[in-house]
Amino acid sequence: MSILKEFKEFAIRGNVIDMAVGVIMGGAFGKIVSSVVSDVIMPPIGLLVGGVNFTELKLVLKHATTDAAGKAVPAVTLNYGNFLQTTLDFLLIAMAIFLMVKAINRFYQKAPAPEPGPGKEELLLAEIRDLLKEQNRAASSVNSSGSSVNNGNNI
Predict the structure, then answer these.
(1) pLDDT (tens digit per residue) in 95-125
(2) What was the pLDDT predicted at 129?
(3) pTM of the predicted model as reported, rounded to 2 decimal places
(4) How far apart are the first and last CA of the chain?
(5) Which residues contact residue 42 at a Cβ distance below 8 angstroms, ignoring those fewer than 6 apart?
(6) How many CB atoms lie within 10 A of CB 33?
(7) Taking each helix axis from N to C terminus, what angle separates 2-12 and 14-36, rounded to the nearest 10 degrees?
(8) Residues ≥6 apart with Cβ < 8 Å to 88
């Protein structure tokens, strides 16, 4: 029973549910981008390069034949046009996701943290420094006024 309980806790966590929603949305978004590429972007590009349908571009490695029994053996082809279209799909999806993440990160940017003030030791040292400066000023003003300090040693 503990494994089932652990799995339930894992599955109910917010991060797992958010990830599942993201995967579903990503799949739907991928289909939209694939449609944009294959139905909107590639036809004009194919027209510009001479009326080529990119999904039909292929390199025939072995032509179709018929075997001894009269069955048709399909051609062996390298479908580089489909690869080009899939690569363009990927690049557009990657660019769109990059732009979305960049826009979302702008909302979550935190203001730079203020620099921390001086620590306790630094404050104490500054206070000691200031006290020493005051003592030096007081001592120099007494010495400059011409009065001598008698400390009881008359030698």
Answers:
(1) 877 888 888 888 877 777 778 888 889 889 9
(2) 93
(3) 0.48
(4) 96
(5) 54, 55, 85, 88
(6) 21
(7) 50
(8) 37, 41, 42
